[in-house]
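Field reference: sequence -> structure
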Amino acid sequence: MSKNFELNSIFESNAGLGATALRIPVGMILAAHGAQKLFGWFGGYGLEATGQWLASVGFEPGYLMALLAGSAEFFGGIALIIGLLTRPAAAVAAFTMAVAMTVHVGNGLFVSNNGYEFALALLAATVALTIQGGGAYAADRYIAGNLPRAELTPRELAATA
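Structure field:
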């Protein structure tokens, strides 16, 4: 690991409209699914029932796991829609989708059999966004353009927090 950490690398993206076209609908899907888990919106079951289900499939403590998964999806999805902290938000969402796949992998690929294809598609999209960043029309691009180019060591970065 490099001793220097360039803050701009979190925000910068040379990706164009393709990343934007991917980021916005994926963010909408994730935010909606997170809202189902956290608030019971859009036909969801809410935090308590989602937590009970997660506990029943082995994710203990269920309530905490529902809170973490729902928050990753809801807040990460909103961040992706805006294009704010795209790489970290997409990385957390990718991890969440990888875990979600473990629930469905025994059912095969196809979603019609409760398989993992939807989680896999979201995993692929969020990994792509983690790699390429938010692209055009992302808040990250505006932030990157207004940050100083100086490199900070991890200690210096921590001192600015």
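Note: The helical segments are 8-11, 17-39, 46-56, 62-82, 86-104, 117-132, 139-146, 154-160.
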